[in-house]
């Protein structure tokens, strides 16, 4: 894979270059306009059907493995994958999901399926633990008509 860096500021454009990544292309521009222009330039582009098929097969296999792991019943504690699968089955289309807590968010992001756009909130890569409650309150204040569910893990609750 290749990294394309886009930033208005030339100084910020290369800020973490060679520390975490090296851009194959660095563009000094407004990122929103960059993506609008990129989308316009890709009109009519068609992805190879075989590649899409391969990705879908891999995704299906990964989901199958996760379901199998969710069936393991430990002697003590809960199986977090089972909890997440059970929660996912209980969610309806009117739900915002908030995930908080380190590695647990990765599992939650894989298992829980937001039912639409703007229905998933998490602190992001390298995010801060413990922001889930605040995110949930904010989501409920912004969308009082929706259910808000928070999943906490990895010490994010206390």
TrEMBL record:
Q: Name one Pfam family in it.
A: TPP_enzyme_C
Required cofactors, per record? thiamine diphosphate; Mg(2+)
Q: Where is the Thiamine pyrophosphate enzyme TPP-binding domain?
A: 100-157
Q: List the residue ranges of the region (Disordered).
A: 58-77
According to UniProt, the reaction catalysed is: (2R)-hydroxyhexadecanoyl-CoA = pentadecanal + formyl-CoA
* Matching Gene3D superfamilies: 3.40.50.970, TPP-binding domain (3.40.50.1220)
Q: GO biological process: what's one of them?
A: L-valine biosynthetic process
Keywords (alphabetical) are: Metal-binding, Thiamine pyrophosphate
Report the family membership: Belongs to the TPP enzyme family.
Sorted alphabetically, the Gene Ontology cellular component annotations on this record are:
acetolactate synthase complex
Q: What is this protein called?
A: 2-hydroxyacyl-CoA lyase 2
Named from the GO MF annotations, one term is:
flavin adenine dinucleotide binding
């Amino acid at each position: 894979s290749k990294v394309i860096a886009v930033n208005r500021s030339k100084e910020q454009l290369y800020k973490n270059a060679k520390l975490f990544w090296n851009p194959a292309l660095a563009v000094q521009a407004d990122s929103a306009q960059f993506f609008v222009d990129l989308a316009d330039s890709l009109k009519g582009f068609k992805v190879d059907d075989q590649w899409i098929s391969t990705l879908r097969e891999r995704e299906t296999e990964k989901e199958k493995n996760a379901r199998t792991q969710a069936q393991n019943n430990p002697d003590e504690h809960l199986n977090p994958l089972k909890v997440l699968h059970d929660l996912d089955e209980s969610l309806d289309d009117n739900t915002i999901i908030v995930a908080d807590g380190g590695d647990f968010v990765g599992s939650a992001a894989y298992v829980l399926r937001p039912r639409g756009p703007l229905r998933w909130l998490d602190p992001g890569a390298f995010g801060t633990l413990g922001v889930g409650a605040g995110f949930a309150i904010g989501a409920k204040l912004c969308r009082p008509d929706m259910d808000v569910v928070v999943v906490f893990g990895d010490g994010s609750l206390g």
